[in-house]
Design a protein that fits this description.
Layout: H1 3-11, H2 14-37, H3 43-60, H4 66-80, H5 85-123, E1 125-126, E2 129-130, H6 140-147
Helix pairs in contact: 2-3, 2-4, 2-5
């Protein structure tokens, strides 16, 4: 259902939406760095309260739309679910690059960016093992082991 997208398009131009996505993502990254580098117990609560106040003021002043802030905040929350900080950081860089491609080339830019990213990931080898190993050279047995956890008692010892 693209009604949400078309309702945003009727209010904002494409350039405004891209600018809002970039600006809100950068502001959230600044908050994240402030949380990480400040050694205090209260900093998380203070940064959350300040983020809520700033987001409410920016919506009331029509600097950012509520939908854009919702999308960016949900993507940030999903980024906290990743176990590795470095992996989450590399995904954010990729999302910024994809956002740039989408801003210039629309849907074709997104498709092209995802294809280039997939080709790059297929070509990476770490210790002569492909980065996407069970998936790309396809090994169904190993892929099943990665997707479905096997009990330690059921594993065969070498």
């Amino acid at each position: 259902d693209y009604s949400f997208y078309f309702s945003l398009q009727s209010v904002y131009t494409n350039g405004e939406l891209i600018f809002q996505m970039f600006a809100s993502s950068i502001i959230i990254e600044i908050f994240r760095l402030a949380i990480i580098h400040t050694p205090s117990i209260l900093i998380t609560a203070l940064s959350l309260i300040s983020a809520l106040i700033l987001s409410q003021i920016s919506i009331e002043l029509n600097i950012f739309s509520g939908e854009i802030l919702l999308i960016v905040s949900l993507s940030t929350i999903c980024g906290f679910a990743l176990p590795s900080f470095e992996f989450a950081l590399s995904l954010r860089v990729c999302s910024f690059l994809l956002l740039i491609l989408v801003s210039f080339f629309k849907m074709e830019g997104l498709t092209f960016g995802i294809i280039i990213l997939f080709i790059y990931l297929v070509n990476i080898k770490i210790f002569d093992i492909p980065y996407l190993y069970p998936l790309c050279p396809l090994n169904i047995k190993k892929l099943k082991e990665y997707i479905f956890r096997v009990n330690n008692k059921d594993k065969k010892t070498l």
